[in-house]
Amino acid sequence: MRLNTKIFSSVSTKSLMLGIVIVSACAAFVFTGFGSLNPGNLSGLDPNTVAQIGSEKIDVQRFSAAMRSQNISSTTPPEQRKAIAQQILNQMIQEKILIEQAKRIGWSVDQSEIASILKSSPYFQDPQTQQFDIKLLKGYINQNGMSENEFYAYLQQQIAMQKMQNLLFMPIVLPEKILEVENQIKNEEFKIQYAIIKPSDAFLKNKISAQAHKYIEDKEHLQNIMTLFENSKNQYQQKAQVKSLSILVSYKTAQRAQGEALNRSKEEALALAKQIENKLNSGADFTKLALEKNDDLTAKSNNGDIGFVDDTRIDDLSMKALLTLTSAKPLSQVIDTPFGYRIFKYIDSKPAVVKKFDDVKYQLAEQFVSQQVQSSIDDEMQKNISEIIAAKNISNLNKVLAENNISWQYLNKPFKISESYIPELGMTDELAANIFTLKNPGDTLPKIINFGSKKAIIKLVSKTSAPSLTPELAQTLKNQILSTTTQEFLKSVQQSLNKKYEKDGSIKINTALIN
């Protein structure tokens, strides 16, 4: 059972705020999980126990309630259901580890502590008198479907967990200098230009073409290309294709007849097709009639358009008729096909194509060499530019960039190293590690920066210094540092506890109940 922890929102730290425990103590484990949990010896688990951690049990009722709260239904994919179940179980196990650890060190919770929390919570105070009201407490317990004994046992466990949590927080003294550096890191902004290191398409195309011609000169390479051609010959042979609109009028004995056509004789279908033909010859809109009269449901949903077809995609009688149509003579007569009577309107056509080996050998050779050529050019260019910017030879740099059609561009907004991603470039880890070496406008980083899928050189346009470190800003930065540091320490301690419990065989899981 998971209680509404808002009731403890006003309890002082000294009173051990109950609601904080699950959120702060277990957050890291909810998302990182126990990927290596050892099920241990399951012989001691009864069918109503999902897991046991030392003397603490997670029963089926509580686990099922937590699963229901995730809105899991019969349509939820099994993989997703299993992942959610594992996530919930991970959180519950971590709670039990803290409770069990409190027991092991002899940490007890007396009745006065429980009473102090309940009486201090505004959730159980009368709005008029501001005094504790037992009726509100009982109403809350009933609302959550618990007995009073279950509620007090749960509350006692949560307080023990909070005490364990408090042990893991260490006071940290932060010198003023650290806060000043943190302020600079978080709040200094850089306006920068970037030039993506990539050869121009024309240059790359010429290099690949030249290398492909050279590649073919080798007899062994030529044989490789001929083998590739033979294995993929079909893609270089294209049958004549026609793109058209189509109206099908089917009847009950035609192939694949459906819908209204099942109530229509062949004679009735022909009469209807002739009516449609007369309307089209009189200037009626083909797409409108295709929507109204078409028994080809696929064509009907596309305003009659059946795309490009050849004799592998349509019956022979229809294809023969389509090949006679042109832009000057776009409408066909009524055609008797196995599927019913068809009328076509010409849109476009593609002639048959048969390419021989000599027609495509250079194209195939380019496929063989393109990746290697591009990689070689990229490496050579990056090496050349790296040497130029390391030597701070700006005039030579601009010459090389111009030769390769590489231009300087501006970021849309100033960069702060707290940003992990720049839309124009990619991941910023390497940029953040080097950005503070730029001091003056025009300074260029002395190395090419890797943004993941892109590599670029970076030049400073201007920078805006961080605001002065006021007491309020200093406190905000201090809180952020302490929060991060504490959570990292907390996560480390919790992981150590988990490994210890696994090693001791103290974590036992009834896997049949969560799969």
TrEMBL record:
Superkingdom, taxonomy of origin: Bacteria
Broad class of the protein's primary localization: membrane
Localization, UniProt: Cell inner membrane
GO MF annotation terms: peptidyl-prolyl cis-trans isomerase activity
Keywords carried by this UniProt record: Cell inner membrane, Cell membrane, Chaperone, Isomerase, Membrane, Rotamase, Transmembrane, Transmembrane helix
PpiC domain location: 239-348
Gene Ontology cellular-component terms listed: plasma membrane
Membrane topology per record: Single-pass type II membrane protein
Sequence intervals crossing the membrane: 16-37
InterPro entries attached to this UniProt entry: PPIase_dom_sf (IPR046357), PPIase_PpiC (IPR000297), PpiD_chaperone (IPR052029), Trigger_fact/SurA_dom_sf (IPR027304)
Pfam family, one: SurA_N_3
UniProt-listed PANTHER family: PEPTIDYL-PROLYL CIS-TRANS ISOMERASE D, PERIPLASMIC CHAPERONE PPID
Similarity annotation: Belongs to the PpiD chaperone family.
Stated name of the protein: Periplasmic chaperone PpiD
Organism: Fluviispira sanaruensis
